[in-house]
């Protein structure tokens, strides 16, 4: 079954950005992710769906080693980004997180100006040599975050003074400012109203031109709207991974069908 | 496909209600096909008038099914098997509505034919053909309710029989017309009737294909046997 939407949204099946093999995650004695194998494409929005506690956020957090911060968490298997093992000892997690940006459920701008929110990453990673460079990065990022026009006249106003939807787009601008290759989003719209949600979804579709986007969402309709590929997690297993149009019209696994049609799985 | 219940029980009730409407519609259409063919054979103008009148109820049901389906799509955003259920319900309602129209047309022509010299055996042949199509419709709808792709495939294969019955009638009517030009008017009506019943068979086949899509998620690909050869038949006297 082909993606039934317009041609422009066709999935480019060639470039694999992230390749996970035999990934196991344990929180103490709890086996949270069970032998997950998945290949995530470049310039594609991939949605992770599944009931609460299914492991989708845990797996997402493996992709930029956010689980390192949890003492009892243990990750096994291999996760490669562009062929490079991100759990290799020589990989600096801070550098990794500049390459693999993340946007969270609740907008969390720093208590700083809009400008400084976006400039923070490029500054600590030394991406700008001059003030003019930094200005340019900030403007480009805010444009990519589809919020430039709303904030260009008040760049030095606090980021926390923006509306929820604007704050979330500011956080996306902040995440793209370090020129990441992958953008992880954990429920980026669950705290937003429908209009702000639509704006963020439109933005996600635009971001796809430059990034590989992975989004965790509880809204199946959102997954259907924004993604080209969908992965369904259940009880720590990756049950089904396929083209989004196929998953939502003709899922192959009965557990996927039960979940997306709103039945007890 | 799954038989589990939705967490939102209202959703189950909505889907069940639409499917109940389809079954009701199917029942009315089947009854009208049977009655129309009976009226034709028995030259029963009153029964034919009843068939014509009851087609309104079929049309109203189709409209109701489309409205309910639109509601479910708008309010419940059905996915996967639920989505296919709603999509196929709308298509099947369309197929049934067409069958109803053909039965109504048959009844209309019955009124005209009742005033003409009867064509020997034609009424009985048409009634046999109508019975076959009605049986196909019934099985296609049974396959729908039972989500039985195998039964649907059998229905699909059966359309060949209807096509062959139609071929035979086509030739028979041609012969009658050549024998005696006074038969032409009646035979033309009878031919339209036979053609319309053959079309009903195509609609029953289409319903069966919808069932296969509903159950498997894919439309059947391989071609089914087709037996309507009349598009290639000419009026050459020698061939008879």
Could you describe the 3D structure shown?
The complex is a heterodimer of chains A (265) and B (240). Chain A has 265 residues and is α/β, with parallel strands linked by helices. Chain A has one domain (7-260): 3-Layer(aba) Sandwich (Rossmann fold). Helix content of chain A is 34%, strand content 25%. In chain A, the strands form 2 sheets. In chain A, strands 6-7-8-3-9-10 form a 6-stranded mixed beta sheet, with helices on both faces. In chain A, strand 1 (16-27) and strand 2 form a beta hairpin. Chain A starts with 15 loop residues before the first strand and ends in a 5-residue tail after the last helix. Chain B is mainly alpha-helical. Chain B has helices at residues 9-42, 45-76, 80-113, 122-146, 149-179, 184-216. In chain B, helix 4 (122-146) packs antiparallel against helix 5 (149-179) and helix 4 runs parallel beside helix 6. Classes of the chains: A alpha/beta (265), B mainly alpha (240). Chain A binds chain B through residues 1, 220-221, 224, 248-251, 254, 256-258, 260-264, and chain B through 1-2, 4-8, 11, 77-84, 217-218.
SSE layout and pairing:
The complex is a heterodimer of chains A (265) and B (240).
Chain A: E1 16-27, E2 30-41, E3 45-49, H1 56-62, E4 73-81, E5 84-85, H2 93-99, E6 100-103, H3 114-124, H4 131-144, H5 148-151, H6 164-176, E7 182-186, H7 194-207, E8 212-216, H8 220-226, E9 229-234, E10 237-243, H9 244-249, H10 254-260
Parallel strand pairs in A: 3-8, 3-9, 6-7, 7-8
Antiparallel strand pairs in A: 1-2, 1-4, 4-5, 9-10
Helix pairs in contact in A: 3-4, 3-6, 4-6, 6-7
Chain B: H1 9-42, H2 45-76, H3 80-113, H4 122-146, H5 149-179, H6 184-216
Helix pairs in contact in B: 1-2, 1-3, 1-4, 2-3, 3-6, 4-5, 4-6, 5-6
